[in-house]
Every structure is written in structure tokens, then in C-alpha cells.
């Protein structure tokens, strides 16, 4: 047997060896993967960096990942309607470079995740309002401007909020679970890939069964399009359209014909096209 074959077998043995967690976990080695150089078990700022503030009433600090695209979509949809006060400056927070740990960003989002938004719309009277978590930002903006969310207590509002919260609870299995182990982990591992693939396909089936009888998440009229569609499309719509993790074939997304129809319909909206290609200003 060649030396190369011996080395390959040793790697396989190491990968398949049973892991016994220690009594107390410590970070004593690099965990590997795409973001290993910035992952730490602690929060807070790592360096001083003030955030720029433009002239627009809304200041967005983000990246065009699925979580960032959600907010882009709503801002662009509001702009398409000609709503006043939705003008915004958008700045790039490059998470691969650790920009989310700059002091200015941590001040507005102690969780150091994109996106974050600051509302300066009443600069003379009020303190700026900082909002983090994509779902919170979408709800804040939709309610502030009275668009893309049912405002009265009703089944329509309950449905919208239920699907928004469904996405917030489900997407970590897609991104942090499936996406990480399928696309970003230092080596493929069968158990986690199988575990999260099964859950993502179950979630797609949930959506497919719902969308069989619905044009949008909230109903069949164009007026039913709302933040639930935007927030779910950014992850699951882009997934079935082949825009995430190069995983469309692996997940057999063509099985979910109703999700694909819905995703393609939303992808053709002018605001959505602008949102996914949004130009973000560099922070220097």
C-alpha cells in the first residue's frame, strides 16, 4: 500500500473516530471552515471604528446575504410605491473581514450580525432609533410606513406574523445548519449533512403545501404580498432558484413546484431585482 493511501486511510479513521465531549469545553484549537478566523465564543467590539452617517433618514449597515437582502427588498418596494421618508444610505459590513466587530457597529447591534439599521428621520427632536435582527427591521419599517403588513388585528395580520416568525425560527437550520456543513465546513461529514438536509427538505415541503393554494404567503391577491414573502424569499426563494450553496440539484428543488412558481414570481419584481444587486458603500 502506498504512503498516499496510508495517509488517506488515516484521515478517514480520524474523521470517523467517535468524539467524546470533555467535561468543560475550551477553545484550544482552530475549528476550521470559512469563518474560522473570526469565530470566537465572546461578544463585543474588537477594534475601534466609527460608522459613517449619510444624509438620508435611514442608515443601513449590511451585506447582500439572504438576511441583508430581506431589508433591501422592503426598502426598494417602499421606494417603488413612492413612499416619502424611505430614502436610505447603505454601507457594506464585510463579515468575512470581521467588520461586524467594529465598535460603531457593535453599538447599534450588540449581537454583531448583519443587518442593522438606524432611523434618523427626526434628527432634531429624537435620539436615533437603532434596530437589529432582520425580522425586527422589516416589522419596524412596515409598521412605520403602513405598508406590506396588515395593521389591524385580523387573520391576515396573524398569518403574516406567523410566517415571519416561522422564517426566523426555520432559517438557521438552512443557513447555520445545512449551509455550513454542506458548503463551509472544513470537510464533509455525513451525519450533519443528512440531518440538516432532511430538515431543509421538510421546510420546503411545508412551503410547497401552503403555496399550492396561495399565490403569496398571505393570499391570492396582489395586495396580499407582504413582509412574510420578502423574508422567506430571501432564503428559500433564492435556494430553489439555485442562488444558495450550489445545492439545487442536491436538494432536488424541482420537486417543490409551488415554491418555485412563487419564487420566480417574486424574483421578477423590479424592487427585488434592485435589492439583490444593491450597491453598498465601502466603509473606510
TrEMBL record:
InterPro entries: Glutathione-S-Trfase_C-like (IPR010987), Glutathione-S-Trfase_C_sf (IPR036282), Glutathione_S-Trfase (IPR040079), Glutathione_S-Trfase_N (IPR004045), GST_C (IPR004046), Thioredoxin-like_sf (IPR036249). Residues 1-22 are annotated as: Disordered. Residues 153-284 form the GST C-terminal domain. Residues 59-149 form the GST N-terminal domain. Residues 1-18 have a biased composition (Polar residues). Belongs to the GST superfamily. This is Glutathione-dependent disulfide-bond oxidoreductase. It comes from Psychrobacter saeujeotis. The gene is yghU.
Amino acid at each position: 500500500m502506498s504512503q498516499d493511501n496510508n495517509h488517506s486511510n488515516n484521515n478517514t479513521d480520524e474523521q470517523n473516530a467517535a468524539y467524546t465531549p470533555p467535561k468543560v469545553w475550551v477553545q484550544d484549537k482552530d475549528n476550521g471552515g470559512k469563518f474560522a478566523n473570526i469565530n470566537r465564543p465572546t461578544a463585543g467590539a474588537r477594534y475601534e471604528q466609527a460608522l459613517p452617517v449619510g444624509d438620508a433618514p435611514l442608515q443601513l449597515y449590511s451585506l447582500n446575504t439572504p438576511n441583508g437582502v430581506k431589508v433591501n427588498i422592503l426598502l426598494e418596494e417602499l421606494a417603488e410605491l413612492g413612499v416619502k421618508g424611505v430614502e436610505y444610505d447603505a454601507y457594506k459590513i464585510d463579515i468575512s473581514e470581521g467588520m461586524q466587530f467594529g465598535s460603531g457597529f457593535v453599538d447599534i447591534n450588540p449581537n454583531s450580525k448583519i443587518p442593522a439599521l438606524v432611523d434618523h428621520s427626526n434628527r432634531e427632536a429624537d435620539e436615533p432609533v437603532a434596530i437589529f435582527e432582520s425580522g425586527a427591521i422589516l416589522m419596524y419599517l412596515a409598521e412605520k410606513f403602513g405598508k406590506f403588513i396588515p395593521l389591524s388585528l385580523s387573520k391576515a395580520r396573524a398569518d403574516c406574523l406567523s410566517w415571519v416568525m416561522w422564517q426566523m425560527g426555520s432559517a438557521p437550520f438552512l443557513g447555520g445548519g445545512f449551509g455550513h456543513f454542506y458548503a463551509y465546513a472544513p470537510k464533509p461529514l455525513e451525519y450533519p449533512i443528512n440531518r440538516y438536509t432532511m430538515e431543509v427538505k421538510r421546510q420546503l415541503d411545508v412551503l410547497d403545501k401552503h403555496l399550492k393554494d396561495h399565490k403569496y404567503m398571505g393570499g391570492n391577491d396582489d395586495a396580499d404580498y407582504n413582509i412574510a414573502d420578502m423574508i422567506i424569499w430571501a432564503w428559500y426563494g433564492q435556494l430553489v432558484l439555485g442562488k444558495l450553496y450550489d445545492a439545487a440539484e442536491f436538494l432536488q428543488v424541482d420537486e417543490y413546484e409551488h415554491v418555485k412558481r412563487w419564487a420566480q414570481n417574486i424574483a421578477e419584481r423590479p424592487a427585488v431585482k434592485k435589492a439583490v444587486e444593491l450597491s453598498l458603500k465601502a466603509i473606510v
